[in-house]
Amino acid sequence: MANMKAHRLGWIGIGRMGYAMAERLAKAGCDITVWNRTRNKAEPLAKSGAKIANSLADLAACDIVFTMVSTGKDVKEVLFGADGVTSKGRAPKIVVDSSSISLEESAEIRGKLGKQGVKMLAAPVSGNDKVVKAGKLMFVVSGAQAAYDTARPYLDLLGRGSSYVGEGELARIAKICHNVYLSVVIQSLCEITVLAQKAGMPRHAFLDFMNNSIFGCMFTRYKTPALVNLDFHVTFTPELLRKDIELGLAAGREFGVPMPLASVTRDIVQTLIGNGYTDKDFAALLLLQAKASGIELAPEHVEVSDGLS
Q: Are the C-beta atoms of 52 and 46 separated by less than 8 Å?
């Protein structure tokens, strides 16, 4: 993009993901103003060139405002609350929401923004903060095509690009489908990794083969260090994964699509939760699989690539 300052950008939400994303835009030379409920979490971004907003209403002067907060309730609060972006009767031209919210909440927010002449893009992401820093984040986007065309250069700056899937809330459905697939793939990967180990193979050797086979992908490579060295610090909790599988199963019922693999995987993730793995990453499904297979796992202490660097 020739002119990084072609639009005034606003950013709401400086958690792990939000910080990494806003920092990328600031370092690219964008005209970006950030706001966070806890201001001191946003202030370090000033070193990268971002401005720090004193109030949410200040962001109404922006052309595009990005939201990356925890829940649909939070999105509504920052946009429409007593001190929200639109509280002083002004509003940005476009709102891009990358929060994980339901279709119903997304449609409600889109409707309220539309009454104020604001176009909304639903833009969930595939990846986490490490993926952002590696420049490999991917967006799926739905909403007005013209708004997407305007926002797309900034989405491209944030990672590998974006897929436009149509109007309305279709991006939310796409993200639900993505996370259902995530659950089935990690469970299958855990099953075959434990099978390979019980047959006598080191996990790192088996996963090296898988990652370099036709089945190797960014996800299998990214999870390999956790599966080899049993470092299950949280990137995504089992409870959040269960929630997304259940959203997928609900959509399957609504649209008349049988989802037998997703149904079984939901019960396995529930078993993971019931066995007390709630404070670990969802890849701890490996430990559950090992227990069910009658073996104890130990870290292999082998340095393996996560495929990001």
A: yes
Tokens linked to 166: 């149509």
- pLDDT tens, position by position, 106-117: 999 999 999 999
- Give alpha helix (H) positions in the chain: 16-27, 39-42, 72-80, 103-115, 129-133, 145-157, 170-198, 203-211, 218-229, 238-255, 260-274, 285-292
What integer pLDDT is reported at residue 3 of this predicted model? Answer: 77
Locate 212 and state its tokens.
């370099």
Q: Does domain 173-292 have CATH number 1.10.1040.10?
A: yes
The DSSP string of 176-203 is: HHHHHHHHHHHHHHHHHHHHHHHTT--H
Cβ distance 63 to 93 under 8 Å? yes
Tokens of 219: 């996800």
- With cut-offs at 50, 70 and 90, classify the pLDDT of residue 2: low
Strands 119-122 and 94-97: parallel
Residue extents of the structural domains in the chain:
8-168, 173-292
- Residue 266 vs residues 100, 184, 239, 287: alpha-carbon distances, Å: 19, 9, 10, 17
User: What Cα–Cα distance (Å) separates residue 57 from each residue in 33, 79, 118, 202?
Assistant: 12, 9, 15, 56
* CATH class of the domain defined by 8-168: alpha beta
C-beta neighbour count of 294 within 10 angstroms: 8
Work out the end-to-end distance of the chain between its first and last CA atoms, rounded to an integer number of angstroms: 25
Whole-angstrom distance, CA of residue 90 vs CA of residue 83: 12
Cβ within 8 Å of residue 41, ≥6 positions away: 14, 19
Tens digit of each residue's pLDDT (9 = 90 or more) over 209-247:
999 999 999 999 999 999 999 999 999 999 999 999 999
Res. 1: pLDDT tops 60 = no
Q: What is the pTM assigned to this prediction?
A: 0.92
Looking at residue 235, its amino acid is T
Sign of CA dihedral 166, 169, 171, 176: negative
